[in-house]
Amino acid sequence: MAGSRVPPEIEWHINFDDDVSELDAAYIDALIRLAGRRLKIKPVSILDAPCGNGRLHAYLRAYGYDVYGVDSNRELIGQAKAKHRASQDRYYVGDIRDFDLGRRFDVYLSWFTSLGYFDDNGNIMVMKNAAKHLNKNGIMIVDVANGEANIAYQASNPNAVFYNESGRYVMVERPTLRFVNGVPYQQRDETFYEKRRRNLFFIKKHGLKMLRLYSETDLRNQLAKAGFDTIYSLSGRSFAKFRRDARRIVAVGVKK
User: How many CB atoms lie within 10 A of CB 252?
Assistant: First the structure.
């Protein structure tokens, strides 16, 4: 069914249901409270950028946080406003490298591989802009795939194909590994289909996207260049100290 349209929230969150979002929010709340105790502060405001359609925000607000969101996609911001009508004035369209809300927050949230879609200069711009929007001792939480584990997996599985489903939509992803001036990137080839009974109908193919693959050391170093000290570096969505074989890195930094 060429010419059909994939909703933007499906493109970015194809395999995320409400249960996953609720668990993510509970983990984020625990990270914030843990860092807050260490820093002797009680964070109350969160800036989520990019925020997508605000899938985490109802749960974070239930924990008592004042949550704002920024995203470059107008449709996703429109959905966030429609979904969170009482907080419509807390959503903005903007480029995460240089938007300016004219106020500061206690926490900046960069969740589920929301970092790494630019070159290193651009990615550090994102982090510096985060620092600009944080109060003294402000907390930055970054969740990205573990680049070292990704590189090892793709080296062993160069023809890997991933299938992700959401309702009647299916995304087929073929990642490949590329190095640009010695920096590792994952090049993503994504094709979307619509399920009709037992058949799949082509909808669209994404232009190739490049994602910076961060090792834990790379991430620490770039956070430091942007003005953050990393106080926790964790394995995936756990409270265990980061291990090189972990699937994901969760870094918690504090503004210097």
Answer: 22
Please state the pTM of the whole predicted model: 0.94
Strands 169-180 and 162-166: antiparallel
- Residue 145, φ and ψ in degrees, nearest 5: -65, 145
> What is the CATH architecture of 8-146+215-255?
3-Layer(aba) Sandwich (3.40)
Largest alpha-carbon pair distance within the chain?
56
Tell me how far apart the alpha carbons of residues 5 and 192 are, in angstroms, rounded to a whole number: 9
Q: Across residues 202-230, what is the average pLDDT?
A: 94
Return the closest-CA partner of residue 127 out of 231, 33, 254. Answer: 254
CA distances (Å), 182 to each of 64, 71, 179, 185, in order? Answer: 44, 30, 5, 10
Question: Highest mean pLDDT: which of 30-39, 160-169, 202-211?
Answer: 30-39
CATH 3.10.450 given to domain 148-211: yes
Which of 167, 149, 165 has the alpha carbon at shortest distance from 157? 149
What is the spatial distance between Cα 198 and Cα 186, in angstroms, rounded to a whole number? 31
